[in-house]
Amino acid sequence: QVQLVESGGGLVQTGGSLRLSCAASGFTFSSYAMSWYRQAPGKEHELVAAISPGGTTTYADSMKGRFTISRDNPKNTVYLQMNSLKPEDTAVYYCYVVLGYWGQGTQVTVSS
Question: Could you say which of 13, 69, 82, 92 is the most buried, measured as most Cβ atoms within 10 Å of its Cβ?
Answer without folding.
Answer: 82
